[in-house]
Amino acid sequence: MKFQVAIAFFLIFIVVQKGGECQNRDSVITKVYDLQPESFGLKGGEETVYTFTEKSPEFPGGTGALFQFIKANTKYPQTAQKEKASGTILLKFIVEKNGLISGERILYGDRADFKREALKLVKLMPLWQPGSQNGKPLRTFMTVPVKFCYGGCKD
């Protein structure tokens, strides 16, 4: 157990020393992003958007239903088909107190066609159950991966 803890601290130390960049190009996230409220269109004095809440936002039907929705509604771009390309887009958005989605942004993704398609997908999402604290709904950030796999993704 002590060895595993030591390894974890060592890896965190290496990432911090490298300025948050990972050396593995195959990893989903290649840079640790410091997202400022302004990058989501938030202005001083606007209501806070929380990263963690007592009850996280939930897609109707839960996480399984979210990934079924993504799978059913993701259109694989023709340009990517020609190139037999695959990749992952990491989306971040705000689930508002009323369940609407706003402030959608791409955190990670190399291909412009995958990014466009992932943003279209967010616009199709139904109302979410908002995050809450002590039973009070709050504006909450959510991060969701969208995979594009040539020949179909294996679950």
From TrEMBL:
InterPro entries attached to this UniProt entry: TonB-dependent_transducer, TonB/TolA_C, TonB_C
**What's the protein's topology in the membrane?**
Single-pass membrane protein
Q: Which residues form the TonB C-terminal domain?
A: 61-155
Q: Where in the cell is it found?
A: Cell inner membrane
Q: Does the keyword Cell inner membrane apply?
A: yes
One Pfam family this sequence matches: TonB_C
Give the record's keywords alphabetically. Answer: Cell inner membrane, Cell membrane, Membrane, Protein transport, Transmembrane, Transmembrane helix, Transport
Q: NCBIfam families per the record?
A: tonB_Cterm
Which family is this protein grouped under? Belongs to the TonB family.
Which protein is depicted? Answer: Energy transducer TonB
The organism that produces this protein has a lineage beginning with: Bacteria, Pseudomonadati, Bacteroidota, Cytophagia, Cytophagales
